[in-house]
Amino acid sequence: MKNIASSAIALSLVIYIIEVSLFNDIRFLIYNLVITLAVFALYNFRFIEAVRNSKIPVLFSAFMVFFAYILNMDFGYQKYVIIFLKSFEAILIVSTFNTMFSFSKVITGFKKIGLLSVLADMVFLTYRYFDVIFKELESMEKALISKGFKRGRGFWEWNTMKILGYLVGSLFIRSAERSERVYNAMLSRGYSGKLVLKEEESLFASNLIFIAGILIPPAILLFIEKVY
């Protein structure tokens, strides 16, 4: 069971996202969302944390769908609502799995089912250093405030845009410098182009029940949608 644990997690993520992408009726998407949320709430005691972690991706997805709708209204709003619901459910399942299982286990699973090692390592390192980037932003913001910068000014004000441009440029430079230091540190510790992630504990029976609980309902709903 331990050898297939990470593979089962990654494969279940892929299957769920494929199932969600095949829905064409907004009603069945809503039914599936309600059932999925119920399974999450019953099983995962950190469900609220998973929802909180998915806030930024969901807002970004909503913005992109709304922007696409503004540019082209010929398809009607329902098509765009369906797109948003699909992306929301996919984001939620990824966030919940990341809360329940370690991110390294998920990435290891994707490697085992055929994802390119380079791509998997890039995703892992990007996720690993999100907190570092946010802390860097916070320190830069504090430095700007100490020099008299005020948040209340309008975004389109020239001085504000100038300062924000400086902030973004400085962040890129600092990120490049930090990435160079991190890479050199990895080389000094034996990195040879491939990350070796620790294989963690095996799946429990309750984990398998949870995975079945999120994969079977959308499969049934898909069958009903296609047949009826």
Can you describe this structure?
With 228 residues, this protein is mainly alpha-helical. It has two domains: 1-102 and 200-228, no CATH class; 116-197, no CATH class. Helices cover 77% and strands 0% of the residues. It is built from ten helices and no strands. The protein has helices spanning 5-21, 26-43, 47-53, 55-71, 77-100, 103-112, 117-128, 130-146, 158-188, 205-227. Helix 3 crosses helix 5, helix 4 (55-71) packs antiparallel against helix 5 (77-100) and helix 8 (130-146) crosses helix 9 (158-188).
List keywords for this structure.
2 domains, 10 helices, mainly alpha, 77% helix, 228 residues, single chain
Order of helices and strands: HHHHHHHHHH
Indicate the low-confidence ranges by residue numbers: none
Anisotropy-based shape? globular
Mean pLDDT: 77
**Annotation field: number of helices:** 10
Round the Cα radius of gyration to an integer and report it.
21 Å
Measure the end-to-end span: 38 Å
Number of strands: 0
- Helix fraction bin: over 70%
Q: What oligomeric state do these chains adopt? A: single chain
Strand content: under 5%
Helix-and-strand structural type: mainly alpha
**Largest sheet: number of strands, sense, barrel closure:** none
Number of domains: 2
